[in-house]
Amino acid sequence: MKALKRIFDFYLDASIHVAFAIFSLVRVTRMTLDIPGNGHLEWFLFFGAIACYNFVKYGVEAEKYILITDPHQKHIQWASFMALALALYHGYFLSAEAYIVIAGLVALTGLYAIPVLPHTKNLRNLGGLKIFVVAMVWAGATVLLPVIAAGHSISWDVGIITLQRFLFVLILMLPFEVRDLRYDSPELHTLPQRYGVMGTRIIGACAALPFFLLTLAKDTIGGPELLANGIVFLVLGMLMGITKKKQNRYFSSFWVEAIPILWWGLLVLISGML
């Protein structure tokens, strides 16, 4: 059991789970917009997410990230280097248009992690901006990038799904914000610091409604999409209902981040049934 727990903790700590979440959201985009698959793009995002997230989590202090003695973190470091190499390999096959979007996303991610203003460590330390930056990057990576890589234009439906994805990720970030309330500096001005745990839960629950209603604003709506989005809407509402300050270690890092995988699974399942 201890060995399985170590493997599972590595799976979470090395950002493999969050990479699967991003991979799943790309598949959701493909299914809802009916765009062709691009295996190189999907695996580029999967491996790139591992390298990028681990850099943000562990690599802000370069010396600390390079000179590692802890075996667990050392394994994560090697996994990150391998993921970066695989991401570069798959990135070689992407189009020039995709590279332009990727450059913008990388720049935004870099500003999130690297100091850019005097007396401010990075964008994640600017009051209340963190979750919006993360939501923008996820929406761009899982909606706009697959669409542009497929050679499609930014249509009304693409804009609707991008906004919907932004709200979806924003809601998923709130349990993390609540969890980190006791550790975050008061200078961060996060939503739980400003509005309290209950206020944050209410904001998340209210944001879940436009997330679902945006589905109805699309020009083309499929039955599986409508049903799957309705179920995800209920899951997001329940998530806000059970989010609390004192969480089980795996509540946010596993269960919350598994919701994108659930969304993709629902679409696949319902599409196969209808």
Short summary:
With 274 residues, the chain is mainly α. The protein has 12 helices and no strands.
Topology:
Blueprint: H1 2-13, H2 16-33, H3 39-58, H4 62-66, H5 71-91, H6 96-113, H7 130-149, H8 156-179, H9 191-216, H10 223-242, H11 249-255, H12 259-273
Structure keywords:
single chain; 274 residues; mainly alpha; 12 helices; 75% helix; globular
Average of pLDDT: 88
Structural class: mainly alpha
Q: Ranges with pLDDT <50 over ≥5 residues?
A: none
Supply the number of helical segments: 12
Fraction in beta strands: under 5%
Specify the biggest β-sheet: none
Cα-atom radius of gyration: 19 Å
Shape summary: globular
Tell me the total number of β-strands: 0
What is the H-and-E element order?
A: HHHHHHHHHHHH
Helical residue percent band: over 70%
Ends apart, CA distance between termini? 40 Å
Structure description:
The protein is an all-alpha fold and 274 residues long. It is 75% helix and 0% strand. It is built from 12 helices and no strands. It has helices at 2-13, 16-33, 39-58, 62-66, 71-91, 96-113, 130-149, 156-179, 191-216, 223-242, 249-255, 259-273. Helix 2 runs antiparallel to helix 3 (39-58), helix 2 (16-33) packs parallel to helix 12 (259-273) and helix 9 (191-216) runs antiparallel to helix 10. The protein is globular and about 50 Å long. The relative contact order is 0.12. The model has no long low-confidence stretch (mean pLDDT 88).
